Amino acid sequence: MTQSIYGAQDGGVPITGVQYEIAAGPYRAVVTEAGGGLRELTHQGRPLVLSHGADEAVPVALGQLLVPWPNRIDGGRYAYDGRVHQLDLSEPKNGCAIHGLVRHAPWTVTAHGADRVLLAHELMGHPGYPYRLSLEIAYALDAEQGLTAVLTARNIGTRTAPYGHGAHPYLTVDEPIDDCTVTVTADRRLPVDERMIPSGPAEDVTGTPYDLREGRELGGLRIDNAFTGLRRDGDGRAWVRLAGGGRTTALWADAAHPWLEVYTADQAPGDRRRRGLGAEPMTCPPNAFATGIDVIHLEPGAQATGSWGIMSG
């Protein structure tokens, strides 16, 4: 096992914890102890995702894992199995609970080789989420296929748990995304209100600026929506592609993810604003715990698994 700690001042440990580096052929990645997040991914030394410093508080959820729910829960309030639960409002601005409970928690490495790393975390019961989950994230690099990530959750508690997950990478070709072509193989888009809560059912993208199925230059279009009705290739994968400056960065998601959040990074700080495209595979849509849409009912002893990946070209 090898591991690296770097990026901290005065010889201390950086705030995102131990940094685990893996590599294969032209690909290199760095995964953090904090949240089991993907901090860096490069191809031939050029970034495929927006990154952050090892000793920097993670802005706009760059590369983080979203468990046990992705996106927002309106008011942090939901009912499940005859009980009403109230989560902490981790996004006070919109009065929402956002992106789950593990983004900043320490994950323990259980295996680390030259081209792969496996981390685990046990989620204890939280206010508003009185369930126990054993989580595992495996990142692997391949010289041809790039990065594959596999996230597994197992219910080690005593009651059936509502469950969903997502991931939050921002694809980049190291160019402003306004000048890039974006392709999303999705037939429908979920509208949202001013608080980013779904305002109605998913709508057909045909004839709208959000029809990205054949690829379109982004220009000034602002997007922060979940897409569904995903068209998949022969391997069951749905794709998001960002092309510009002679480069293409692509993300795929398996059938465990019927939703893809697409975000044009309009609120990203500083020079990250609109330099990357949030492409977030999700097992359920925003506010799923409140609506019940695509929530996984994880029984004691059962597990849920989903995979996604990122590659150049």
TrEMBL record:
Transmembrane parts of this sequence: none
InterPro entries: Aldose_1/G6P_1-epimerase, Gal_mutarotase_sf_dom, GH-type_carb-bd, YihR-like
UniProt cross-references to Pfam families, sorted A to Z: Aldose_epim (PF01263)
SUPFAM superfamilies in the cross-refs: Galactose mutarotase-like
Stated name of the protein: Aldose 1-epimerase family protein
